[in-house]
Design a protein that fits this description.
Cytochrome_c_Oxidase_Subunit, mainly alpha, Cytochrome Bc1 Complex, Chain D, domain 2, heme binding, binds heme C, Cyt_c-like_dom
């Protein structure tokens, strides 16, 4: 192999390496896009980024596990004082609620 061909070979191996990594990367950004879209319907009440202070509880920066279990409880009708969240949560799959929980947990208050 000439030195030149060897370089090409290395470059090609590098490209293959990138291609092997990118599906993971694409999955992350797909979830981020889906999360932003889902979360946009929460902003009306909870404020942009879930930081609104007022009678509606702030949800940003809480642990994802707490948010997720609250959302699942709303969905299953296990939150006796719910006014709107019980109906709202039923509009999402469990997976979408988990995505929303992770999204708001990652926003700093
Ligand atoms: C129509 C207004 C409205 C919208 C839209 C809304 N929420 Fe709520 N949310 C509330 C109210 C009001 C409460 C207090 C519980 C209740 O009355 O149902 C609440 C409570 C919560 C709680 C529990 C917080 C706590 O400490 O008790 C979480 C978590 C939550 N909402 C997440 C979300 C997410 C995620 C979305 C978007 C999918 C969303 N909410 C959309 C009004 C809203």
């Amino acid at each position: 192999m000439t030195p030149h061909k060897h370089l090409l070979h290395l470059a090609f191996a590098g490209l293959l390496g990138l291609a092997a990594v990118s599906p993971l990367h694409a999955a992350a950004t797909a979830e981020q896009r889906q999360a932003a879209l889902l979360a946009s319907s929460c902003a009306n009440c909870h404020g942009t980024d879930g930081k609104l202070a007022g009678s509606i509880p702030a949800i940003a920066g809480r642990p994802a596990s707490v948010l997720e279990s609250q959302l699942l409880s709303f969905k299953r009708g296990e939150m006796p004082h719910a006014t709107v969240m019980d109906r709202l949560a039923r509009g999402y799959t469990d997976e979408e609620l988990a995505i929303l929980a992770r999204y708001f947990a990652n926003i700093n208050r």
